[in-house]
Please model this.
Amino acid sequence: TVYIPKVKTLAIDDATNTHITFADGVAVVTDTVSYSSLQPGLNYTISGMIMDKSTGKALMIDGKPVTGKTTFTAKKSNGTEKVSFAFDASKLAGKTLVVFEELSVNGEIVAEHKDIDDDKQTIYIPEIVTTAVDAQNGDKLINPDKTVCIKDTIKFKNLVPGLNYMVKGRLMDKNTSKPITDKDGKDITTQTEFTPNKADGNVDVTFTFEGDSALAGKTIVVYEDLYIKSDSESIIASENNISNEEQTVFFPDVKTKASDSNNGLKMTYAGKEAQVTDSISYKNVIEGEKYKIVGYLYDKATGEKAETEGKAITAEKEFTAEKSDGVEDIRFNFDASDMSGKTLVAFAELYHNGNLIKSHNDIEDVNETIYIPKASTTALDDKTNNHISYAEEVTKITDKVDYENVIKGMEYKVSGYIVDTETGEPILINGNKITG
Model:
């Protein structure tokens, strides 16, 4: 009798129980070797090696090939044995591996199975790369004041077509490396299922949630984990890099401080050439990008935009951010001669690529508020207690000044002088004005 052995193999990842391995830490692949036509009673050795399909050469980890071996005594001509391979797969994302096996007796090879194109011998290591943007405009700067919709496009590689997969995503705070939560304190997560018809492709994952002022100034990184749907416990690929800029989106913040351009106070004079400077402090924008600030003055009493000559009072400025945080000034020039007693509030909006990325519109914010004082007077003679004085040597006139819309707690000074109504000039006595 002459025995001519034959072997065939089936390689499976221990964690996923499929032909797919996760590129993270130590992977264990078990190759079930089915043999036939062995001579019972002899001692056999199965020696395996993992090959890199792209190169057709042995997979090298730390300069050494990945091998496995098992020795057994054949009780029957036909049977199965398992060969295990344990290796560091953390740097193998995107690779396809193939298990080669040799059967030997007394050091002589009597059968082998080395088919680089055999799917049953193949192990796939998926890879995913993600890019997160605002779903509405494709910008990486997102306005936290409205409903937030983040689209994370996952570019996958080396999946087994036809299987059902599931992507689970979560949002992380880059500063703390902790999950971002919603208003109810729950982690913001999402998941998407898909069935690819090719090994490589794209799938979008969308996060939609209500905006929150607490998001202003935060940098968020999108984490993604890929699973086979039938085994949602075993990750087969992930992209969880807190420093990955492609996975990152930014929520800017804006604060403003308005003051009179000439005196630096939060009060301005009701004159024809009023000037108000609004200092815009921005935070968490992308360095080197161009931005535009648009400002409006609002009438606090009405809540409407303040106008002069029928036009809204606005100011704007374009700038390039040298750093992620900074300050830019905008200046409002307007005729305030009819605005005595009004309180104005400066609103500011920050734009990037034409998209509104943050606004600061708080009608109650004292830092944005400008007061325009108003004064009216009533002059009476001290003796007659009316508007008529007697032409005598000593005359006393008391002018009662009623003021409105000044800031409490500050010290003020009222200065007055008497004018001749016929000439419009101050009355002089011994060359001096009559003052109080």
The chain has a mean pLDDT of 95. The radius of gyration is 40 Å. The chain has no helices and 35 strands.
